Amino acid sequence: MPTKPEQISARRQTWQAFSLLRRAALPDQHHLGWAVMWLVLAALLEVMGPIMGKALIDEHLLPHHLDWPRMAGLLAGVVLTGWIASGLRYLQLVRLSGLAMRSVMRLREMVYTHVLLLPMAFFDRAITGQLVSRVTNDTEAVKTLYIQVLFVMLDSTIVLVGTVAAMAWLDWHLMLIVLALLPAVLLIVWLYQRWSAPAVTRARALRSDINGQMAESIGGMSVLQANNAEARFGKRFAATNQDHYTARLSELRANAWLLRPALDMFNIILLAAVIYLFGQREMTAAEVGVLYAFISYLARVIEPLIQITMQFSQLQQSVVATARVATLLDEATATEHAAPEHAAGLAAERAAANDGSNGDAPAVAIRHLDFAYNEGQPVLHDLSLEIPQGAFIGIVGHTGSGKSTLLSLLLRFYPARHGSIAIHGVPLDAIPNDRFRAEVGLVPQDPFLLAASARENIDMGRGLSQAQIEAAARAAHAHDFIAALDQGYDTALGEGGSRLSVGQKQLVAIARALAGTPRILLLDEATSHIDSQTEQIVQTALDELRGKVTVIAIAHRLSTIRDADRIIVLNHGRIAETGAHEQLMQIDGGLYQRLYLLQQLAA
Ligand SMILES: Nc1ncnc2c1ncn2[C@@H]1O[C@H](COP(=O)(O)OP(=O)(O)OP(=O)(O)O)[C@@H](O)[C@H]1O
Fold first, then answer.
1. Count of alpha carbons within 13 Å of 182, Cβ hemisphere only?
2. ABC transporter domain location, by residue (predicted)?
3. At what angle do helices 286-330 and 5-25 cross, to 10 degrees?
4. How confident is the model over 21-45, as a mean pLDDT?
5. For every residue of 132-144, which 3-state class applies, written as one string?
6. Contact of 211 with 130, CB cutoff 8 Å
7. CA distances from 293 to 12, 163, 170, 174 (A)
8. CA distances to 192, 437, 442, 473, 503 from 455, in Å
C-alpha cells in the first residue's frame, strides 16, 4: 500500500520529537529508571487494595468469621497499600518533574545557542515572535510529553492491565462483559477529539500570532506611533485575540458538551450493567465482596482508558511542538557552511598564521562575485576588487545599488553564489569563525546597544581588561563622555542605549568594534544619523586608524569618505567608477561627481 506524504511527515515528526526527547533527558537517565519503578509499584499496590477489601467482606464480615488479627491485617493492607501508593506516586512525580524541567532547561539552552549561530539568511525568513515562541512555549512541550503524556499513558496502561487481570481473577465472565462494553469509551473520546482537534490546532497557531504581533509592535513602536497606527494595530491584535478566545471556547465546549456528559452516562450504564448481572445470578454471600471489588475496579478501568485516549491529542500537539524545536535545531548554522570543502584554504591560512603574517596578500580580494538573495533577482554582478592592507576605502552609490549587500557578503552573513572573496589571501569560508570575527569588525548603521553598562557594551563578553576597553574608547573618541557619566564605564546605558545621544551611541559602537583589534573594520553608514560635529570626530578616529587597520566604509554622506584612499562607486550592483575623490571629480557627468554636487547643493 502506498504511503501518503502526510503519514511520512507525521512519522518523521514523531521520530524527530522522540530523538530530541532522548537527547534532552540523556544526562538524567537514572532518574527516569527510578520514576518508572515507583510508578509500576504504585499502580500494582493500587490494584491490590480492592482484592484485600473483597477478602475482608467475603471471608470475615459476611460469614461473621471474626478472626480479628487477620481482619486487622486486611484492613491495614487496604489502607497501607493506598498510602504507600500515594507516597510512591509523590516520589515518582518529584523525580519526573525534576527530569522534565531539567530537560526543558537543557533544550532552551540548546535552542538559544543554536539560534545565535544561524546564518543571516535564516533571519530574513524568521518571524521574531515565532522564534521566541520556539524557545519558550515549544520547549515546554517536552515537559508535557514527559509528565502529561508518556507517564500518564504508562501509568494508565499499568493500572488498566492490572485491574483487568484482577477482574479476570475474581470473575472472568463478568470481566469479559465489562471489556466488551469498553470500546464505547474509545468511541466517545475519538468523537470528542475529532470535534475539538481543529479548534486546538487553531488556538495554538493563534497564540503564536499573538506573540508575533506583540514582538513586532514593540520592536517598531516608534514607527508605529509616528504613523498614528496604534488604533489599527490595536484592532488587528484584538481580532487575533478574539479568534484565539473563540478557538479556546470551542475546545472547552466540546469537552463540556460531549466528553464529560457522555462518559459520566457511560459510567452509570456500566455500573447498572454490572449490578444487573449480579442481580440475575443466584447471589451467594460470598459474591458480595466480588461485587464490591468490581465496582471499585470499574472506575479504575474507565479513567485510565479515558486518560490514554485523551493523551493521544496531547501527544500529537507535543510531538508537533517538539518536532518544530528539532527542525530549528536542524537548521544548518553559519559555521557548518564553512570548513569541509575548503580544507586546502584552511591549510594555507594555518601556514600563514604560523609565520605570523599573510605577507603582501591584499586585505580583501573579490573576484567575479555574483550574488542574489532570490533566484532570478541578481543584486551584485561580476564584481572584482582588490583592497590593500591598511587602506581606507569608501563605498558609495544610490539606494539599492548593493552596498550593504557587499558588506554582508564580506561579513559572511550570506554565501556568495558565484566568484570568490578572500581575506588576507584566505578564502572567506575557510577561515574559522573565531578567527574571522576577531579579524573583521563591524560598525552597523544601527549601533544596537545592550541594556548594560558602557563597559559591557564595549567588551561584549570578550573579557577585556579595563585598559583595553579604555584604549578602544579613546581611539573611538568615546572615552571623555563615558568618563563623564555618573558611574563612568559602569553606568548602565538603558535599553538600546537610551541614555546616550545617537552620535554617542555610534561612538560606543565604534569603540566596541575597535576593542576586538580587528585588522579590517567595516562601517555601514555609521555617520548617516549623526551631526556634523560628531561626524568630524568619527573622521578623526578613522584617520588615526590609517595604515594600521583596513577601513571599508559605506557612506551616504560623502564628506565621511572624501579623504579615502579609494572610493568605489556602485551602480545597480556593478562597479561604475573607482578612484580617489579628486580623480572621480574629474569625470565629467560621472556618477560620483553628480552625487557630490547634489550633496553640496543640499548642504
Ligand atoms: N535580505 C534581503 N532579502 C532580499 N532582498 C534584499 C535583502 N536585502 C537587500 N535586498 C535587495 O538587494 C538590493 C540591494 O540592497 P542593499 O541593501 O545592498 O542596497 P544599498 O546600496 O545598501 O542601499 P541603501 O543605501 O538604501 O542601504 C535591493 O534591491 C534590496 O531590495
1. 20
2. 364-597
3. 90
4. 86
5. HHHHHHHHHHHHH
6. yes
7. 44, 10, 8, 12
8. 58, 20, 18, 10, 17
The reply to whether domains 16-331 and 351-602 share a CATH topology is no
CA pair distance 115, 331, nearest whole angstrom:
9
Show the cell assigned to 252.
472547552
Mean pLDDT value of segment 586-603: 84
- Helix crossing, 151-181 with 260-280: angle to 10°? 50
Q: Residue 420: in which H helix or E strand, if any?
A: strand 418-423
More confident residue, 454 or 376: 454
Return the amino acid letter for 302: I
Question: Ligand 1 centre from 514 Cα, in Å?
Answer: 26
Q: Are 388 and 442 in contact (CB under 8 A)?
A: no
Give residue for cell 490595536.
234
For a substitution probing ligand 1, which of 120, 124, 377, 379 has the most ligand atoms within 8 Å of its CB?
A: 379
* Beta-carbon contacts of residue 503 (< 8 Å; ≥ 6 apart): 529, 530, 531, 533, 534, 537
Q: If DSSP codes are grouped into helix, strand and coil, which group holds residue 214? A: helix
Report the C-alpha gap between 125 and 135 in whole angstroms. 17
Class (C level, CATH) for 16-331: mainly alpha
Kindly give the number of the ligand 1 atom that is closest to the alpha carbon of 405.
18
CA angle 490, 491, 492 (to 5 degrees): 110
Longest dimension (CA), the chain: 122
DSSP 453: B
CA–CA gap between residue 55 and residue 289 (Å, rounded): 7
Residue owning the nearest CA to atom 26 of ligand 1: 399
User: What residues does ligand 1 touch, defined as CB less than 6 Å away?
Assistant: 124, 373, 379, 397, 399-405
DSSP strand E in 77-142: where?
none
What is the Cα–Cα distance from 241 to 220, expressed in whole angstroms? 20
Strands 550-554 and 520-524: parallel
Strand, helix or coil at 465? coil
Atom 10, ligand 1: which residue's CA is nearest?
Answer: 373
| CA 406 to ligand 1 centroid distance, Å | 10
Find the 572 Cα to ligand 1 centroid distance in Å. 10
Are β-strands 520-524 and 392-397 bridged in parallel, bridged antiparallel, or unpaired? unpaired
Return mean pLDDT, the chain: 83
pLDDT at 346: 43
Q: What is the Cα 584 distance to its own chain's centre?
A: 49
Phi first, then psi: what are they for 175, rounded to 5°? -60, -40
Ligand 1: centre distance to CA 120 (Å): 14
pLDDT tens string 296-351: 888 778 888 877 877 776 777 788 888 888 888 888 776 544 444 444 444 444 44
Q: What is the pLDDT of residue 282?
A: 63
- What residue ranges do the domains of the chain occupy? 16-331, 351-602
Which atom of ligand 1 approaches the CA of 121 most closely? Answer: 1
- DSSP H or E segment with residue 79: helix 68-116
User: Does CATH place domain 351-602 in 3.80.10.10?
Assistant: no
Protein residue with least CA distance to atom 5, ligand 1: 373
Judged against a pLDDT cut of 50, whether residue 519 lies above it is answered with yes
